[in-house]
Amino acid sequence: MDWTMKLATAALFLGLTMVVTRDEDEGDMCLYEALSDTDAVLCKGLEVFYPELGNIGCMFVPDCNNYRQKITHWAEPIVKFPGALEGIDIKKGKLQGQELSPYQPPSPPAKTGFHRYQFFIYLQEGKNISLHSKENKTRASWKMDKFLNRFHLSEPEASTQFMTQNYQDSPNYQTPGTGSSEPRDKPK
């Protein structure tokens, strides 16, 4: 096997390997689980960095170190588009332009399972983009397909997503005062 084939095989192996870190508080392993192949189709060139977590694009938020609870309070992540043209700030995670609505951290309701949090980069061609007043009320009050059609936005230049659930639904959640948790379903 020549060196390029070995390099490609090693890259593929590393891409399929799950990242594991040690949970310092509990001495347990912290598993960073990749999204399924079906969900990974949306993962095209964007990186999403949160403090303590690193890049969680195309991942489940780990169920350790209270990450699923912490993420509901953190400031907005750093979003990088490494495939952007040279000299563009978004390549380094520095977003510029008009903010249409303020950042709202992931906050999935209890007992609703895993929720997807998606990020898209579209090429904007000249037209100013704005939200209608009813669209600006909550995340769920507008429809993406109508928004894209209104501003003639086609396929995204880059995208990614991550999934998380309410921290109280996590398998490692301990009910306050009991010191134990009930077994719960793992991500599917």
TrEMBL record:
Signal in keyword set: yes
Pfam family, one: PBP
Record region (Disordered): 160-188
Signal peptide: 1-22
Keyword annotations of the record: Signal
Gene3D superfamilies: PEBP-like
Record's compositionally biased regions (Polar residues): 160-181
SUPFAM superfamilies named among the record's database cross-references: PEBP-like
Name the UniProt record assigns to this protein: Phosphatidylethanolamine-binding protein 4 isoform X2
Organism: Vulpes vulpes (Red fox)
Gene name, Swiss-Prot/TrEMBL: PEBP4
